[in-house]
Amino acid sequence: MTAVRTVLVSGASIAGPALAHWLHRYDIRATVVEKAPAPRMGGHAIDVRGAAVDVAERMGVLDSLRASVTETGRVVFVDTRGRPYADIAPTMGAGDDRSLEIVRGDLTRILHEPTVEHTEYLYDDSITALEETPEGVRVSFRRSEPRLFDLVVGADGLHSETRRLTMGPEDDHARYMGALICIGGVPDRLGLDREARLYNEPGRAAGMIRSPRFDGAKGIALLHAPDLNGIDRAPEADQKAFLLERFAGAGWECDRLLEDLTHSPDFYFDSIKQIHLDRWYRGRVVLLGDAAHCPSPMSGQGTTLAMVGAYVLALELSRHERLASALHAYETRMRPYVKANQEIADTGIGFLAPRTRLGLTARNTLLRFGGFLTRLSGLDRRVVRTAEAIDLDARPPADMAEGSDEGR
Ligand SMILES: Cc1cc2nc3c(=O)[nH]c(=O)nc-3n(C[C@H](O)[C@H](O)[C@H](O)COP(=O)(O)OP(=O)(O)OC[C@H]3O[C@@H](n4cnc5c(N)ncnc54)[C@H](O)[C@@H]3O)c2cc1C
Could you tell me which residue ranges the FAD-binding domain spans (predicted)? Predict the structure, then answer.
C-alpha cells in the first residue's frame, strides 16, 4: 500500500466522485474541489460501456444506473422535408447489458451521493497554485486556505486547470478534430417520443433527441470548421451569432432548432478536441479522465474511460508503496485502452456528420441497407468491443512497474 494518505481531487463530475469512492475503499482520505457551487445536474446523454459497467457493479451502483437509463429509442435520419430515410439503434450496442445510456447529471448524482459520508467536498472553489515540497503538494485555492496533500488528481475535464498548471497550455496537448458541437435543452416542437432525429447536409448536421429523463428535448448541432479563429473561446453571444450564420439556409427544421438552441438554458458550445499527453503525471500530480485523455464526444467513450481510470488509479495506489510506481502502473495499464478508444472518434465524426457530399452519399447508402452494411462495417461491434478491452485487475509487466519520480 502506498504511503499516500491524503488526496485532493479537482472536479466532481464523473472521474472525481468515482475516484473518491475507490480511495475510500483503500482507506485513503479524499477531498474534492469543484468550481461549480453544487454537483452539476442535467446535461447531455453519455454512455457507460464495457469495463465501466463492471466498475459500476463493483461500486454497488449498477442497479441505480440501470434504473436511470435514458430509454431513447432509435436515431431516425431525415431529409430536408423531414421524411425519414433510415434509422439505427440509439447508440452503438445500447440496449444490451454492456452499454447503458444515461444523462450526465444522473450519473454524477449516482456516483456522488454515496461518497458524501466519507469525502470532503469543497464547492465553488478551485486550485490556483500547486507547489511541490518534500512533504507533499502545497495547494492554494481561490477561496479555501492553502493545504498540503500527498497527491493531487486533476479530474477537471477537457479544459483542465490542473493540467495547465502542471503540464502547460491546453494548445500544446489538444488535437482539434475540425468540428464544433453545440448541445442544449430545447422545446420539443417535433412531438418526439423516445427517439432522435438527425438531419445532414455536407459539413453540417442538426438534430433533436427526446428521452423521459430529459426535461424537454435536447437539440444538437455539428459543424465542420477547419479553422477555429477563436470562436470556441469567444463570448457566448458571438458563438450564437456564428451558429445562426453558419446554419442559415439549411433545410429541415434547422431555422427553428438553431434559434431554440441559442435560447437554451444550458447552451453548450465547444470545439471537438482530443487530449494527447506524453505523460499523465508529474511528481505528485496526476491527471484522470478527460483532463488526461479526452477522447472527444465523437468517440462516446469518455465516461467509460473516466470510470475505468478512477478504478485503476486507486487500485494501483493500493498496490504500490512508491507513489511513482503506482502512477506509472496506472498509466501503463490505461494507455493502450485509451488509445484504442480515442481512435473511435475518427469514425464517429465521419458517420454523424460527413464533411462532403460524396461522404454523405456513402454514409446514407450504408444506412439505407437497413443496418446490414452498418453492422458489416463493424462500427457498432468495435465501439462495444473497445470499451471491454482492459483487464481491470491485471498487473502491469514487472519490468514496467517502476516509475521514475520525475514523471516527465
Ligand atoms: C457535448 C458532449 C457530448 C458527449 N457525449 C458523450 C457520449 O455520448 N458518451 C460518452 O461516454 N461521453 C460523452 N461525452 C464525454 C463525457 O461527458 C466526458 O468524457 C466525461 O464527462 C468525462 O468525465 P470527467 O469527470 O473526466 O470530466 P468532466 O465531466 O468534464 O468534469 C470535469 C469537472 O471538473 C469541474 N472543473 C472544471 N474546471 C475546474 C476547476 N478549475 N476547478 C474545479 N473544478 C473544475 C467541472 O465543473 C466538472 O464538474 C460528451 C461530452 C460532451 C461535452
Answer: 6-164, 273-341
For residue 212, the CA-to-ligand 1 centroid distance in Å is 22
The rounded Å distance from CA 62 to ligand 1 centre is 20
CATH for 6-71+91-173+274-353+371-400, options being 1.10.10.10, 3.40.228.10, 3.50.50.60, 3.40.50.10240: 3.50.50.60
Edge-to-edge order in the sheet of strand 75-78: 84-88, 75-78, 196-201, 204-210, 217-224, 174-186, 268-275
Question: What's the CA gap between 89 and 74, in Å, rounded?
Answer: 5
Q: Which fold has domain 177-272?
A: D-Amino Acid Oxidase; Chain A, domain 2 (3.30.9)
Q: What is the pLDDT of residue 376?
A: 47
Domains of the chain, residue spans: 6-71+91-173+274-353+371-400, 177-272
Residue nearest to atom 51 of ligand 1 (CA): 297
What are 122-148's pLDDT values in tens digits?
A: 999 999 999 999 999 999 999 999 999
* Strand, helix or coil for residue 316: helix
Using the atom order of ligand 1, give the atom closest to the CA of residue 33. 43
What is residue 193's predicted lDDT score, i.e. its pLDDT?
Answer: 86
Q: Is the CB of 72 under 6 A from ligand 1?
A: no
Query: Which among 94, 121, 99 has a CA at the least distance from the CA of 40?
Result: 121
How is residue 162 written as a grid cell? 490542473
For ligand 1, atom 27, which residue shows the shortest CA distance? 157
Q: Which tens digit of pLDDT belongs to each residue from 286-324? A: 999 999 999 999 998 999 999 999 999 999 999 999 999
From the CA of 267, how far away is ligand 1's center (Å)?
15
**The three grid cell numbers given for residue 153, joined into one nine-digit string:** 488528481
Closest CA to 126 of 96, 152, 158, 90: 152
